[in-house]
Sequence to fold (290 residues):
Amino acid sequence: MDIQRVGIVGAGLMGSGIAEVCAHVGYDTLVREVNDELAAKGMERIDQSMQTAVQRGKLSQADLEAARSRIRATTRLEDFADRDLVIEAAVENLDLKKEVFAQLDHICPAHAILASNTSSIPIIQLAVATRRPDKVLGIHFFNPVPVMKLVELIRTLTTSDETLQTARAFGERLGKRMIVSKDRAGFIVNYLLVPYLLDAIHMLEQGFATKEDIDVGMMLGTSYPMGPFTLLDFVGLDTTLHIADVFFEAFKEPRFAAPTLLRQMVAAGWYGRKSGRGFYNYQAGERPPR
Ligand code: CAA
Fold:
């Protein structure tokens, strides 16, 4: 199947990034948010990221304008009636996602593939909310979407070979490298990444080393682009806690149990960069080591 028209549900950090990369490579891209204000905020985020790409010499002004003309925003899911592929990037709430998939199933053409960018919810639960479980899979992007080269494709028990092939061709057109995972919490990357981040918090809780030394250790000792605390602040402590809790529920393994410090920081509203304070206190001028 040849995908031409893509729909994205949600214009948050991930949804707007996915919309941006789709428009860059020529897809007719429609993004849906729940209200005009959030839709405008999403489009603003896309504009800013495209401007950054121009400033960094990754994109010409002409290509920016062409890509921008291919993206539209809507508040109506009904506008997805002509989409070939829809990627849901809404908040991580199972009931809400199931409802979105059931609605998309009624709205979208019979040939359309319905995908989720979830990092924690079992895709099969979304597949069975539709009458086309063979055409449902996970397409999991990484933040920041325009920069990160990886996409995980998640194949459920019911995903057809054709759906997987079409998703692979879509990802290749985006210039991403794809890996395929079965439908299990964490897929490949987060299954390994989340316990590592939680271990770093345990190490800090135990007073074993400073956050700066742990960050520098992993950056210079393993060539990770960011140390674990810088990455935790970047991903969001609330997001990390939510993912850890979902994984713990799924596996009941201590490696996924959220440290007390993480839970308390989230309770205090220290979500990371987005709230001005996480492990580093950005609003007080503190910056992670580089
Ligand atoms: N569009 C296109 N390119 C852009 C861009 C944009 N909006 N913004 C930056 N870039 C490019 C830059 O030009 C630069 O390219 P070169 O290397 O070719 O020069 C590159 O991206 C890096 O950008 P910067 O120099 O501004 O920043 P940096 O070197 O400090 O890197 C970073 C920033 C890419 C975020 C890097 O620190 C990094 O890779 N961090 C780790 C991110 C990570 O692990 N993400 C995954 C999180 S987990 C997740 O997402 C899954 C989940 O489910 C929770």
User: Anything to note?
Assistant: The chain is about 45% helix and 15% strand. The longest helix spans residues 36-55. The mean pLDDT is 97.
